[in-house]
Design goal:
The protein has five helices and five strands. It is an alpha+beta fold. It binds a DNA duplex (13 and 13 nucleotides) through helix 3, helix 4 and strand 5.
Length: 177
DNA sequence: TAAGTGCGTCGTT
DNA sequence: AACGACGCACTTA
């Protein structure tokens, strides 16, 4: 609740660290909202590469970040996030955005197969492409791509590493085959 | 059953 | 033109 201010080299993009029992996540905000959430990077400590320049953090971003921290904390501890910050998915293609928005509709503790998601967005045959879009999800955890399983309740893949997918599912009480 | 192969499909690079 | 966080039919053990 005392976010360390960090600014990327990109203009108008604010990058902040979120310490959690699972490591340091990194959140990025555009003018529209949370546009990226990264899993703790490999080792542990923040990387040297990041430019840390103190600066004034806009009030609205500060508020968004508070929502992000709370939502992430609840998600990682197996509780339902009550609120999400505004999420900016505009960087994705039309197809990707349709997939990501569909993911937001999968309730906590629920799952859908890649095929069902494909059908849900009106592209029943683009099953594999849905997998690709899930892999490109810029806001994992809060945009719950981990709730998408392969057919027959099989685990499927996860760009953030299958250990993460298994952990997130288990914390929601979801079982796979 | 479980595990492996082949092929259709389609958005992305 | 090639490559997947897939799905399904089919073959083997």
């Amino acid at each position: 609740v005392k976010p360390k201010k960090t600014k990327s080299s990109e203009q108008g993009i604010f990058e902040l660290i979120i310490p959690t029992p699972d490591g340091e996540f990194t959140a990025r905000y555009s003018e529209a909202g949370l546009c990226s959430l990264r899993f703790p990077s490999g080792s542990k400590a923040s990387k040297h590469a990041r430019r840390t320049r103190e600066m004034e953090l806009p009030e609205h971003v500060r508020q968004w970040h508070i929502l992000t921290e709370a939502a992430l904390a609840r998600s990682l501890s197996g509780r339902v996030p009550e609120w999400l910050p505004p999420v900016d998915l505009s960087a994705g293609s039309d197809f990707q955005q349709r997939v990501w928005r569909a993911l937001l509709e999968i309730g906590w503790g629920r799952t859908k197969s890649y095929g069902v998601v494909a059908a849900a967005i009106g592209r029943p045959k683009a099953v594999r492409a849905v997998g690709g879009a899930c892999g490109a999800n810029p806001v994992p955890v809060l945009v719950p791509c981990h709730r998408v399983l392969a057919a027959k309740q099989k685990l499927g893949g996860f760009s953030g590493g299958l250990d993460w997918k298994r952990a997130l599912l288990e914390r929601e009480g979801i079982r796979t085959r």
